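## tool: complex_structure
## caller: assistant
## args:
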Amino acid sequence: MKSSFLLILFVLPTLLLFIDSGNKIYARAEDEIDEDLVDVENEGDNEENAMTGDDVEPDEASTTSPDADTQLLFVRPLYNAGTQLELPGGVPVEFLIGFKNKGLNDFIIESVEASFRYPMDFNYYIQNFSAIAYNREVKQESEATVSYSFMPSESFAGRPFGLNIAINYRDSNGVPFVEAVFNETVLITELDEGLDGETFFLYVFFAAIIVLLLVVGQQFLGTIGKKKRSQTIRKQVETGTSNSTDIDYDWLPAQTLRNLQSSPNGKGKLSPKQSPRQRSKRAAKEE
Amino acid sequence: MNKMIKSFALLLIVSMALATTTDSGEETRAKLLVSKQILNKYLVEQRDILVKYTLYNVGTGPATHVSLEDQGFPSEAFDLVSGKLEVQIDRIASGTNITHVVIVRPRAHGYFNFTAAEISYRPVESSPNLQYAISSEPGEGGIVNLAQFNKQFSSHFLDWIAFVIMCLPTVVIPYSLFLKSKTKYELLAQKKKSN
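## result:
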């Protein structure tokens, strides 16, 4: 009994190994996504889909050619398969699609289009990126690479989106094919830079306000001090220049002082009391 | 019981052997994705254009005998400044990439269609079968006239000198007038002193 149990323990893993069920489960899951996509292409009433939507039949076999082999590679940002792709908002995203023609017919890569969809329902479009027409001919047993780049909006930051990248191609007989090379939910992240221009100028603005406040405060304090002083001065009686002892003549040029002292009207007095008439007379004499 | 264990061991060995054969059945194969990019923002005649080729090996094995050839820059339209338009790369390991840069200088202005480069490599190291591939296409780009470009982006050194010369009269004439009157009155003041 025990040995038969052991036998089962050995046989079961080997059986699993033979069947190789793990990979097949994954493959089926992908096929199902493709099926969804086909429905999307048919149901979507978007103008960009019109070119493919009209031709594509709901039959799954007709959407991808067995002779074509596509490979997606995110160049920017880098992406490891199996993890959720995070795209920084406001920064261009670049990817390459490798296309290999394994069959005997030539293929023509017509266009690649990317679109953001509602992650709960991939039939619902949020943003369509422009479909870039390549029209590249891929001969038999040959490969081609096409590059595509788009920029998720910064305002989408922090939200998940269903990113769908579809490549449209047809063979030499004119049969169109569509393949979704990427159909997953991606997260748009916010790129936090250390110091961007906006915050930098915000701080500059704050500094300016502080300096302004300091200047205003100093002015205010100065006026208060002046008021006090002026009140004390006001009590003095204005005597004019009659009291000649406390007049400061230092500011006058020496020439003027000499003129004043030598003038006959002044009689040695320093105050320049002179009638305008006399002044004009003297000026006339000089000239 | 002993026999039983032996049979288990046999089963184990057989299953292991089968597992390894299924593994080796997936032959390692290189697959190259090649991007060709023009790094310039403005394409100007007689000025350098930077072209970058990046070869990504996304396959499971190394790509050997890789040769990249770009016939998209004919010598009658472009001068090769630096780099080579035909490159041989011995080996690109899987999961790695290689960058190749070429600097060319367009001879004339106008629209030019930048086409794809051609690549050939051995996807399986042991077999001499070559895989042919083409890179991504930068597409059509307008090459700007040099004079037109200078009009917008040069430092305009001579223009500024001309501007300064043109500005001189309006500055120098009032200044000379001021200087004249100043010296005149200074002389008068000196005379007064002497008097």
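## assistant note: The beta strands of chain A are 68-76, 86-88, 93-101, 107-118, 121-128, 132-138, 142-150, 160-171, 176-189. The interface with chain B takes residues 3, 6-7, 10-11, 13-14, 17-18, 20, 71, 73, 75, 96-98, 100, 134, 136, 138-139, 141-147, 255, 286 of chain A (CB under 8 Å). Handing back to user.
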